[in-house]
Design a protein that fits this description.
159 residues, alpha+beta, 5 helices
């Protein structure tokens, strides 16, 4: 026959296990959510830059110019189509869009700065506005203020 105090503390053990599981699952969800957020927060803007580079590779300069928020009918005031073709066209120093590589991505409040490298050329920094996904040249300094560079830190650990 079971004694009166044999079951004493059984409910307390079950409660401790439940609390421990809730804390562990909560931490796992927070960590997974943080990893997903930092991995995909610039995904749309990165796709815009990749699309821009693919249009340049396919020599569809008018469509690439449209990603800058400009068209042939209503050209940008400070970036006319002939200047765009001079910068990105077949005779430019960045004509080899197939060899372009996104080196660095920096989130800066209202936009994202992409550092794109070309073989034997100076890297070019492009700004993509978060709200409109319009491309332009990145401002200088690239992103004023201090920023967390977690991705670069993690990459440096494994390279």
């Amino acid at each position: 026959m079971a004694g009166y105090l044999d079951a004493y503390g059984a409910g307390e053990e079950r409660r401790e296990r439940l609390i421990k599981r809730i804390v562990i699952w909560g931490l796992a969800v927070v960590i997974a959510g943080s990893v997903l957020y930092f991995t995909f927060r610039n995904w749309r803007q990165e796709q815009v830059v990749k699309h821009f580079l693919s249009l340049l590779q396919q020599k569809q300069y008018q469509d690439a110019y449209r990603l800058w928020g400009c068209t042939q009918d209503s050209p940008c005031k400070y970036y006319p189509p002939d200047k765009f073709t001079e910068d990105w066209g077949p005779d430019s120093s960045y004509a080899n869009a197939a060899a372009a590589k996104i080196d660095h991505v920096d989130a800066c409040g209202a936009g994202v700065v992409f550092s794109i490298s070309f073989p034997q050329k100076e890297p070019v920094a492009l700004w993509v506005e978060r709200d409109t996904n319009i491309i332009s040249f990145a401002p200088w300094p690239r992103c004023p203020g201090r920023h967390w560079r977690i991705r670069e830190f993690v990459k440096s650990l494994f390279s």
